[in-house]
Amino acid sequence: MMGRAFTPAAVIVLCVWRSVAAAEFPVRPETDVEPLTREVQAGDVIVLQNGTWRDADLKFERLPGTEDEPIHIRAETPGQVVLTGQTEFRFSGTHVVVSGLVFRNTDGVSDVMQLRTHSERHAHHCRVTDCVFEQTPEGEAGSESRWLSVYGTNNRIDHCDFAGKRSRGPTLVVWVNEEVEQHRIDHNHFGSRPPLGRNGGETIRIGTSEVSELDCRSIVEDNYFHACDGEAEIISNKSCENVYRHNLFEACAGALTLRHGHRCRVEGNVFLGRTKGGTGGVRIIGQQHSVTNNYFEGLRGDAERAAICLMNGIPNGSLNGYAPVEKAVVSHNTFVDCKVSVEIGVGVGRRQSAEPADCRFTHNAFLPDKWPVFRVHVQPRAFVWEANRLESDRMHENELVTIRRSDLLFTRHDDGLLRPVSAEGIRTGIESGEKYDLDGHPRSDATLAGCDDPSTPLRQLPSAATTGPSWRTRQ
Question: Which of 110, 189, 103 shows the shortest CA–CA distance to 142?
Answer without folding.
Answer: 110
